[in-house]
Specification:
The chain is mainly α and 42 residues long. The chain has helices at residues 2-8, 20-34. The chain has one domain (2-33). Helix content is 52%, strand content 0%. Helix 1 (2-8) crosses helix 2. The chain starts with a helix and ends in an 8-residue tail after the last helix.
Length: 42
């Protein structure tokens, strides 16, 4: 939950009602945002 809160600037209360599967989806999105793929240099 901490990585979701940091990346999206959400307070913990915003995630209290989420199901585990929803939290897992948001966590995956946070990871993609925090670690974007390297761009190829031309």
């Amino acid at each position: 939950m901490a990585d979701i809160a940091i990346i999206f600037h959400w307070p913990p209360q915003a995630m209290d009602g989420m199901a585990l599967s929803e939290l897992m989806n948001w966590r995956a999105q946070a990871a993609r945002r925090a670690n974007p793929p390297d761009k190829k240099k031309r």
